[in-house]
Design brief:
two-stranded antiparallel ribbon, mainly alpha
C-alpha cells in the first residue's frame, strides 16, 4: 500500500528523491525481498512502532498508513530531503486521501504479512 501510494505521488508530482526511494523499496519477484534489504528492515521497525499504540494489532490500512508515516519520519532523521519531508507532511495532514484509498483498493500482494 505504501509503495503504491508513494509511486502515485511520484508520478503526480515528480519528486526526484522519491524515485530513488521507490527503487530501493521495489520488490524483487524471485525472492520477495526489497531491492535494498535495509528498506525491509526499516519497514518492519516502522510497523513495530505503529503497533505500540494500535488497538487493533492486525495489518489494517490504518496501521499501514501510520507505519508509512513513521517509515518516512525515520528516513528523514537519517538525512533530510525536501521531497520526502513534503510527502511526510502531506501524509501527516492526510492531504491525499483519494490516492491512499486507491493504493488500498489496489493492494494485492499476498506474500506481505505482518511478522
Amino acid at each position: 500500500m505504501m509503495y503504491k501510494y508513494l509511486d502515485s505521488i511520484y508520478w503526480k508530482y515528480k519528486y526526484d528523491y522519491l524515485a530513488s526511494l521507490l527503487g530501493g523499496m521495489s520488490f524483487l519477484p524471485e525472492d520477495n525481498c526489497t531491492a535494498d534489504p535495509a528498506y525491509e528492515s526499516d519497514w518492519d521497525i516502522a510497523v513495530e512502532k505503529a503497533l505500540v499504540s494500535a488497538e487493533d494489532k492486525s495489518f489494517t490500512p490504518e496501521l499501514a498508513y501510520k507505519a508509512a508515516v513513521i517509515f518516512l519520519e525515520d528516513w528523514l532523521e537519517i538525512g533530510y530531503d525536501e521531497d520526502i519531508g513534503r510527502v511526510c507532511d502531506d501524509m501527516k495532514n492526510i492531504r491525499y486521501p483519494d490516492i491512499w484509498e486507491d493504493a488500498v483498493k489496489n493492494f494485492n500482494t499476498p506474500y506481505l504479512e505482518l511478522k
